[in-house]
Amino acid sequence: MRIAVLSLAFLSATAMSLSSQTRPAPSVDPTVTAQGPRPLPGPVYETPGFTRAVANGTRTRTGAPGPKYWVQHPRYQIAATLDPIHNRVTGRETVVYVNHAPDALDRIAVHLRQNVFAPGVPRRQPVPITGGVTLSRVSLDGRALVLEPRPAAVPITAPPEQPPQPGQYVVDGTVMWIPLGTPLKSGDSLRLEVNWSYSPAPAPADGREGHDGHVYFQGYWYPEIAVYDDVDGWVADPYLLEAELYMDHADYDARLTVPRGWVVGATGTLMNPESVLSKAARDSVAVARRTGRVVRVLTPGPGAAGAFAASGPTATWHYVANDVRDFAWGSSDQYAWDQTRALIDSGRDTVNISSYFRLTAPAAAWRVGGARYTRDAIEQMSAYLWKYPWPQMSSMEGVLDGGGMEYPMMTLMQPWADTLSLAGDLMHETGHMWFPMQAGSNETRFPWMDEGFTQFDVAQGMKVLYGAPRRGGRPNDSEEGQRAGYTRAARAGQDHSLMVPGDEFPQDLYFTMYYNKTGQILAALRGLVGNDAFHRSFVAYGREWAGKHPEPYDFFNAMSAGTGRDLSWFFTTWFYHGWPLDQGVDSVIAVGGGDSTEIVICDMGLAPMPVPLAVTRSDGTVQRVDIPVDAWWANGGSRRARIRVATLPEITRVEIDPDQLFPDVRRENNVWKR
User: Of the N and C termini of the chain, which has fewer Cβ atoms inside 10 Å?
Assistant: First the structure.
């Protein structure tokens, strides 16, 4: 069944006079809210771009990609050198970009995200100023390009006064634009070459990468061609530090040069272990893969040199990664390195697990569980979702002072001392290997499509391993903790639409809404349609969009089609509005001469939801009855719903949602007792 869809011509279902375009915010006082009109959720509406994509055959309204779907897939060759003495990363890259779109491209966009650390660049948070990216050479198909002329007093990162001409490029904050003298036709390719350098920002930098003394992590560190997709064309939103990113899947061949004695962990597979690691270190890696034990490969200190091949003052680590949406790497001479393996696909496949961490008190949990918890996360997510597709997964400690950050085949996170907190953090960041590292949604515009989905998935994996509810660790790694965080904000009147782009979202609500509210929405959807139908449809959606770029409407359509239900009212209610759920038992009264009892449910919130009821009787039996969601549509929007049940045996208790399927903000009014 397809969900109801309209274009942007859709009008809000909330009544509004033509003379007034705004209305006072709903009161958070339940008694006042209950007296107001019932807002009715309208249909889900598409953007014009999505509607065009459906017409063009690249999208459908069943949630599956269309028969003419396409996606771009660049190929990168990168050589980079880390100079810790001068705190400088210097690189050169060649990108081959084949135009798989049916459109001819008259320009290309390239992200230079390290420019967020340049003076004068817009950003939502304060950061250290490092100067940003220095471009020493830019060429297109062998022809050198020059920066668009501008007065000497105007920095390279300032917005251009006029579009650049062919043969030029322009840098606007964190994005470089290159016009093409001859449009790049469908099926044709270009070769972009860039030489660049930058100074990694000191920790905690932007909270996602940087350096802390001799611990370096390079994230968003190279010039990366922006996404050109079938819905919006070029999507080159600036990096403003708040929301995360949108990237094409690509192939990477990277050679990373560091001082000898510095270990390198990176996205991909190490192609030259004989050149950088001693035989003893290589044997340790082999033992870990063969036995599944956690094996120490490297311990920092006087004996660390024995883990490396003797090859002069520097060593070049060669990594290759295919079909990943980014490439990141870290390096240090302070790291211990533990190695193990994960078994997936019922033991038929093996994933190499590497964990890099400092042997410090703040990072004490890492030596206990860094490798083990990373292995657990790969195995749990592969079991709950679908098989992890890459041969390697690495976790790396350092730089960050809170939480963690995901990259393809890699995570970076803070130095946890508490083991259960580390387990939850690794479950979350490793969980991102499915959303968005495979199902490649736009994190910048729709953070809930990866953060919220992963938040929900983490709760499932942690419950299998550690039970729920549980004590200790991070509260938000459980459904109970996620619900408490969301409902606390909703009771305070802070519920918020999730369809607001990440860089425009209130910073103090970013985590609570995008992460916890979305996790609770998925739990509510599971409660609505049943666990089997939910899980089957959710996994089918993710697998269908692996290696592609799903939009919110693809998810909405996929879940409706997969469950065979029109869920447009649900998606409108929970994603497009800040509507909390607050149902209460209003009265339980005998009627009709006493043979029947009428149970009246009052809706004091704004979110319409079905009402699962448990009616307990004096003989101990429990009757389960349900009031359907469309009871709230009656008479143009009702605040009360009624259901009749037999009076005898005597009713002693009535409870709304006894299984706590839905995130009701006030559980205390869910129960009536005689």
Answer: C
Which amino acid is located at 37 in the chain?
P
Query: What are 642's strand-pairing partners?
Result: 600
For the domain 583-673, what is the CATH code?
A: 2.60.40
Fold (CATH) for 71-248: Immunoglobulin-like (2.60.40)
**Residue keyed to tokens 């016009």:** 179
Which amino acid type is present at position 555? Answer: F
Domain with CATH 2.60.40 in the chain: 71-248, 583-673
For the chain, residues classed under CATH 1.10.390.10 are 448-575
Identify whether the C-beta of residue 162 lies closer than 8 Å to the C-beta of residue 230.
no
Assign domain 448-575 one CATH number from 3.40.50.300, 1.10.390.10, 3.40.50.1820, 2.40.50.140: 1.10.390.10
CA 637 to each of CA 14, 35, 146, 400, 632: distance values in angstroms, whole numbers, following the listed order = 11, 12, 63, 49, 6
Structure tokens at 359: 């042997």
**How far apart are alpha carbons 436 and 432 in whole angstroms?**
6
Mean pLDDT of the chain: 94
Residue reference for tokens 């692996």: 546
Radius of gyration of the chain (CA): 27
Place of tokens 């959720």: 41
Read off the amino acid at residue 166: P
Q: Is 319 left (phi over 0), alpha (psi -120 to 50) or beta?
A: beta
> Which token pair is 15?
């009544």
Q: How many CA atoms lie within 13 A of 652 on its CB side?
A: 8
Per the structure block, which two tokens stand in for 347? 């033991």
Quick one: how many helices (H) and strands (E) in the chain?
A: 13, 34
pLDDT digits (tens, 9 = 90+) for 476-490: 999 999 999 999 999
Encoded tokens for 159? 């917005």
| Spatial distance between the Cα atoms of 43 and 6, rounded to a whole number of angstroms | 7
Sign of CA dihedral 485, 491, 492, 497: positive
Least confident of 15-19, 308-312, 469-473, 539-543: 15-19
Pair 279, 309: CB distance under 8 Å: no
Whose CA is closest to 597, among 606, 605, 586, 589? 589
